[in-house]
Amino acid sequence: MIRVLIADDHHVVRRGLLFFLKTQKDIEVIGEASNGAEAVKLAAQLMPDIVLMDLIMPQMNGIEATIQIKEKFPTMEVLMLTSYSDRDHVIPALDAGAAGYQLKDIEPDDLVDSIRKIMRGENILHPEATTTLEREQEEMENAPHLLHPLTPRERDVLSELTKGKSNKEIAASLFVTEKTIKTHISNIFHKLEVQDRTQAALYAVKHGLTEGMT
Q1: pTM score of the predicted model
Q2: Is CATH 3.40.710.10 the right assignment for the domain spanning 143-206?
Q3: Any idea where the HTH luxR-type domain is (predicted)?
């Protein structure tokens, strides 16, 4: 049996998922969470194989919840089930460790198929999420040469850093933890061979690395 935990702040969505998944002979829904913090707590208590994770939830969003779950239980899989397909949501979710990213307009049979494929070790992406990643790769390849050492996520962090934002503000903007931002900033300093935030910002402006950055 594939043991599934559902995490979504909308009761109707949880009920719908529960109703359909209960019809599958090889899937068992073992719990429901109405926010990210509850999802982390129940994941530790119930030890599901897969967490069906909503992205935008109160108390703790799905990305932060995924980061905490993967840090504590690396073999526990997370399938994002959301309404957002833009880069500001897709990329942080995958960076957090989600094995799959599906939109809520997915057909029920395709959702079940995604759950089974993830259990077989495959990574699953909705076509719109795939398009988002392809555009990200294209932007990275066309970026100025001096940006190439930076990953797309590091470029996002650098862009926010040049605006004078604090780690906390950057984390909130990119839907990740402050710890993750600190790691990205450390990598940026190393790759650009600068010592602090001011030097990184000046370097970015001087070399035109902020052009085209969001």
Answers
A1: 0.70
A2: no
A3: 143-208
